[in-house]
Amino acid sequence: MIGGRLEFGGQELMIRINDRLRAPNTPETWKAVEPDARAVLSRVFGNEFSVEPAPSDGEPFTLHVRAKAPATVDVLLGRLAS
Fold it and tell me: What is the pLDDT of residues 17-47, one digit of tens each?
């Protein structure tokens, strides 16, 4: 038990799809998931975020998200739940 001593920042997020067969790390996968990813991220961060797919270097498909303003994880989860 860590007793409330662990904190997570709410300004950066990494989303990874580990299924390389259904979601290879290609521009086509980004094109397919971009509308849904942006819709969910807009609920969480408003329009104040950037999202970039990671380079295709043999790793699973990964998105790097950065919010323009910091927020606590509790606030972000609350926005997602509403």
Answer: 999 999 999 999 999 999 999 999 999 998 8
The encoded tokens of residue 20 equal 């390389």
* Residue 18: inside a domain: yes
Number of domains in the chain: 1
**Containing structural domain, residue 17:** 12-81
Strands 61-67 and 49-53: antiparallel
> For the whole model, what pTM was predicted?
0.82
With helix as H, strand as E and coil as C, how does 4-27 read? CCCCCECCEEEEEECCCCCCCCCH
Collapse the DSSP code of 67 into the 3-class scheme (helix H, G, I; strand E, B; otherwise coil) and give the result. Answer: strand
End-to-end Cα, the chain, rounded Å: 29
